[in-house]
Amino acid sequence: MAFGWIDEQAELRRRAGLVRTLRARPADSPLVDLASNDYLGLARHPEVVAGAAAAARTWGGGATGSRLVTGTTELHAELERELAEHCGFEAALVFSSGYAANLAAVTALAPHGSLIVSDAGNHASLIDGCRLARGAVQVVAHADPEAVRKALGTHDGPAVAVSDTVFSVDGDAAPLAALAAACREHGAGLVVDDAHGLGVLGDGGQGAPFAAGLAGADDVVVTVTLSKSLGSQGGAVLGPARVIEHLVNAARTFIFDTGLAPAAAGAALAALRLLRREPERAGRARAVAGELYARLTAAGLEAVRPDAAVVSVRAPSPEQALRWAADCRSAGLAVGCFRPPSVPDGISRIRLTARADLSGAELEHAVRVIGETRP
């Protein structure tokens, strides 16, 4: 029977409590949202929505082709210029998703004969980039610059270290300055995914590399997503102009993919301009995360101290994590639920994302519900 093995896999997932299902979200949900990645509360901001609508009216519903054919509009070029300026890099290149941006950066910058040193806690998109790249891959201990240094010392040719800046599971930050120092000792490049740092870390949300003093460095390449702090969709790679030019000519997820929809580009550009006008939103997101952590740990829950806007709370098992998230939802609170294989250490969690627009009453409600529904 064709695909008969699928039924066996489904049964194994069911027994392990790892079945995933889709849930359609209504336009006006009554839930307090600590599950989305809308860190700055901009996805529904009137200026961001207006930016999307204006772009759709001007450019149409889609980009109409790949970026190298008809998919690059003046709006895309404007977004790239302002992203690069905000984050402190020479140039930027916009992709249809953050996932595509990571695949592009890793595969195009790790050719045959090179070494990729990858953090064990990296996001799936970086892992897939490593798998698709032609270079050899060495996975090293999580957030360990010395392990990166030792791995680079085993290779004589071109090399690159790859890491998230803020890890999506526990919300802990990578030691970027130390990673860069390890790379520079061996003439290696550093590629970092700032999906969870842009808009939250650095002065006015300029990102984790900016905060670490790495912005504009000729040996550092940064990927970002437009779907978190900027409340839109898409991704980008930022770095030296010669690296960006190389991606235009060599990155398959850029060359062969349809360009980002104009509405998404318009929304992201409006959100970026709003953030630059209201830089205090970044600090507010961090403050909310810190308050969540303080209140949850005071209540006896095992949470990880947040370095950005992600607060992770440990659960006893995958089944109990799933039940905990469901009980929170029943009590009016949406939280994330991370279970294997999404967590590298096999420990299930509920995952909370702080939002800059979360009110004091919503924060109080969230802490109370999480405590009352704990396994």
Task: Describe this protein with a few key phrases.
375 residues, alpha/beta, seven-stranded mixed sheet, five-stranded mixed sheet, 14 helices
Produce a short descriptive summary:
This protein has about 375 residues and is an alpha/beta fold. It has helices at about 5-15, 45-60, 75-85, 100-110, 125-130, 145-150, 175-185, 210, 240-250, 250-255, 260-275, 280-300, 320-330, 360-370; strands at about 30-35, 90-95, 115-120, 135-140, 160-165, 190-195, 220-225, 235-240, 305, 310-315, 335-340, 350-355. The protein is globular, with a radius of gyration of 21 Å.
- Helix fraction? 40-55%
The SSE order reads: HEHHEHEHEHEHEHEEHHHHEEHEEH
Main beta sheet? 7 strands, mixed
- Shape descriptor: globular
Give, in spatial order, the strands making up the sheet with the most strands: 2-8-7-6-5-3-4
What fraction of the residues are assigned to beta strands by DSSP? 15-25%
Give me the secondary-structure category.
Answer: alpha/beta
Q: Note the total helix count.
A: 14
